[in-house]
Amino acid sequence: MPVAFSFRKAIAGAGLALAAAACQSNSSTSENQGAAADTAGASPLTAGTWRGVLSAQGQEIPFLFDVAQDGGKPTVTLRNGDERLKLDEISSAGDSTTIRLGVFDAALVVRADGADKLTGTWVKYDAPEPYRVAFAAQKGEQELFAGDAKTPSVFGDLQKGATFRTVFTGADGGTTPAVGIITQDSVNPKRLTGTFLTSTGDYRYLAGNLVSKADGEHIMLSTFDGSHGFLFDGKLAKPGDINNISGHFYSGKAGHETWTAVLDPNAKLPDANALTGMKPGQKRLDFKFPSIYEGGSISPTDPKYKGKVVVVQILGSWCPNCMDETNFLAPWYEKNKQRGVEIIGLGYERTTDQKVAAQKMLKMKERLNVGYDLAIAGEANKDAASQSLPQIQKVLAFPTTIFLDKKGEVRKIHTGFSGPGTGKYYEQEVAEFNKTINQLLAE
């Protein structure tokens, strides 16, 4: 998954290869401990739809969420386009309520701010340095972005789902190619959904509005998945014309790039199976990493994997794109393991403490119902991953998927993962995965 900006530098000639879901993390604080505090305090979360706003870099990153009651306890469901992310680890102490953000080591810490209003902070406990972003929310469903009262333009191509040849440019001038997909709602033309794909991942589910401003029409898209808060602001070169768009991309507390997009139905990315490979003379992976269960270890040479097709997943529990891939792999494994297929997940976590890393991976395993083997392989950066797997030329992204044949030889290395937010690209990803497995099983 993209560490919104650090992974982009992995691709030769590309400035910032986004692993489609920026990632940052480190160790828990007293606020983190507050998540486990007693629930005697009164929660300010009342049932209904809320519009939340993260304030960072002088921008507002909006998102919608629903509050409901489940067994007498509040739940929060983040809404990003068609995606629904249910959060049920919620506790209150005094006037403060902590909403843990799924598998991620992060939370919204909020308190009431008048009738049907919240104020607080988005905190990442495992970020390499203190990470806090101001948060506020107002109850009552609203549009994500409000512009003036002008009727927005209606675009035939956009209502079908338009594809854009996109380039992101970082502060250092480095560029990253991408494919943008944006769709205009056929009933309410103000509303948009979309995503951007790069060679290291996608920006998952984006939603927003076509907004009329004083300087013209803007495509405004945002998302918040607990690990990342993204804002895309793209201005149409001419009102009523989507052929050329340019604007800004903001990621959380500090990430910023500019971007341009040209309408192009044939836009595509480099082959994800050709971005990296094995070093000359190398055919097998040679590793032995500690299992997430104390005292155990995992190696592809273990008897369990002998004579089987093995998929090695390079991931981190902090990485939304990795969670998308895991949400595909976990049920797939349960349906297909009897065919002679195994999966090994190699976790690279934002901590050097193996016990803490194991706890993070165990939480992911439990929440996502992962039945395949998981190991703690190292620290969460691509250089550490490359060093831990020296037979590979370079690990360019989280996730990376490696396919081993029945003889234990590496047959394919697939960089990144196009998640369900990418529509047809996700379907292609799944189809290619199944085709590869079927071919290896048939040998």
From TrEMBL:
Assigned keywords, A-Z: Signal
Signal recorded as keyword: yes
GO MF term list: oxidoreductase activity
Superkingdom classification of source: Bacteria
UniProt-listed Pfam families: Redoxin
Residue span, Thioredoxin domain: 278-442
Span of the signal peptide: 1-19
Protein name: Peroxiredoxin
